[in-house]
TrEMBL record:
PROSITE patterns: ALPHA_CA_1 (PS00162), ALPHA_CA_2 (PS51144). Belongs to the alpha-carbonic anhydrase family. One of its GO terms (molecular function) is carbonate dehydratase activity. It comes from the Eukaryota. It comes from Tigriopus californicus (Marine copepod). This is Carbonic anhydrase. PANTHER family: CARBONIC ANHYDRASE (PTHR18952). Its EC number is 4.2.1.1. Residues 21-271 form the Alpha-carbonic anhydrase domain. Residues 1-17 form the signal peptide. It is an enzyme of class 4 (lyase).
């Protein structure tokens, strides 16, 4: 079991550890020069609009231990601040909804944000950008080969708006930021997922589509689930994020990829079952 976990971890690193060619957010349309998948037809993010209502057999579900404290490593990877769940942690799973019976295990989360609060999210809602977006990245818990096919990952995206977060959910993370100024700075941290997700008023309001990683290599292996209800972060906390330094030794801001065309894909909106 441990070996399998290590194997998956190594394979995930291959996909995410995209420092083969350096990249940044100056011209995201050029990513395809070094990372051909970025020019594909099933890319993320997208503008979320005109979703088709669809009834899914079961509610999107979280394992009962999901909304608890999780220990991991928080680090500056040169493009964002990311939290990697410790391998010793019991699996936190999501399943059902658009994922069917296949459980997906939480690996990491990270954020995207703007240089000011008029922008920062990757997905947009009817053309509207939010000041930030958080991505909870999950891997097919039964995966026994390399990452590389559609549906290998399930990412839950949440918009972040400016406001008082009743649970002070991001406070523990924000307090660590001064020690994570530069690429590869890292620290251990315990995050309460109940607080992070506590701001979601209605977990049945989401859309789903098939897309990609939003950073190079842009692999088209992601089932996206985008929550409609934004969560909140204080402007002061967003300001702290903007003090981080990226891999070009510049302020880590506007680390979002603008929306791409839906093209031939379908965007579904969960229609809660009549009870
Ligand atoms: C998850 O991985 C297993 C093992 O590779 C595979 O059989 C299954 O089809 C995958 N599930 C999805 C939804 O891709």
């Amino acid at each position: 079991m441990v070996r399998k976990v290590l194997l998956i971890f190594a394979l995930v690193q291959v996909v995410f550890g995209s420092d083969m060619a350096p990249w940044n957010y100056d011209d995201t349309m050029k990513w395809g020069d070094d990372y051909p998948f970025c020019d594909g037809n099933e890319q993320s993010p997208i503008d979320i609009k005109d979703a088709m209502e669809k009834e899914f057999d079961n509610l999107l579900s979280f394992s009962t231990n999901y909304m608890t404290c999780i220990t991991g490593t928080l680090f500056n990877n040169g493009h964002t601040v990311q939290f990697n769940v410790d391998e010793s942690e019991p699996s936190r799973l999501i399943f059902q909804g658009p994922l069917g019976s296949q459980p997906y295990k939480l690996l990491q989360f990270h954020l995207h944000w703007g240089s000011d609060s008029t922008k920062g999210s990757e997905h947009t809602l009817d053309g509207q950008a939010f000041p930030a977006e958080i991505h909870l990245v999950h891997v097919n818990a039964s995966l026994d080969g390399p990452l590389g096919k559609r549906g290998d990952l399930a990412v839950v995206g949440l918009f972040i708006e400016v406001g008082e977060n009743a649970k002070m959910a991001f406070q523990p993370l924000v307090e660590k930021l001064p020690s994570l100024k530069n690429k590869d700075d890292s620290t251990s941290i315990t995050i309460n997922m109940a607080d992070i997700l506590g701001g979601v008023e209605d977990f049945s309001k989401w859309t789903t589509y098939l897309g990609s990683l939003t950073t190079p290599g842009c692999n088209e292996i992601v089932t996206w689930i985008n929550m409609e209800d934004p969560i909140k972060m204080a402007e002061e906390e967003l300001k702290e994020l903007r003090t981080l330094i990226n891999s070009d030794k510049k302020p880590m801001v506007d680390n979002f990829r603008p929306p791409l065309e839906l093209k031939d894909r379908k965007l579904y909106k969960n229609m809660p079952k009549a009870t």
